[in-house]
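chain below, 149 aa
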Amino acid sequence: MKNHILLPNKFKVLGWILFLASAVLGYFCLAFDFKINGLQIYLPPDNEDRPLIFADYNLTNELAFLGITIGLLMVVFAKEKIEDEYISHLRLKSLQWAVLISYAIILILNFSSYGLSFAMFMIYNTWTTLILFIIIFNWNLYRSRKEAA
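prediction:
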């Protein structure tokens, strides 16, 4: 079965590098309020007498979010070195379990967290399905290789 949506295998390493670098950037943004100066948003002057002024907003968080998301997508959609029908079957099975677990977590948190904590989780939930897929797929791949040996 030919799957045209998968990326070449080398994108997996690139994805891990991008994910880890962006996760570190995101950690520093949240823990230490780190900001990259070149990503500051400027407001246009409201009249011609005032020069360009700084807005109180920086896009470093968005850059980290983008890097984490693209990195995880690259890892998830990268082919294995040997991509066959069995690997495709494992991908499908792992994706199904990842989606089921992810939505079970959402339903549980819907009734157990409120306000800002729920909103923050929903933001991080963007990556839950991808991370669960990576964990489940690699675990199933490990188990199948161990059984074959």
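The radius of gyration is 20 Å. The first strand starts at residue 40 and ends at 43.
thats it, cya
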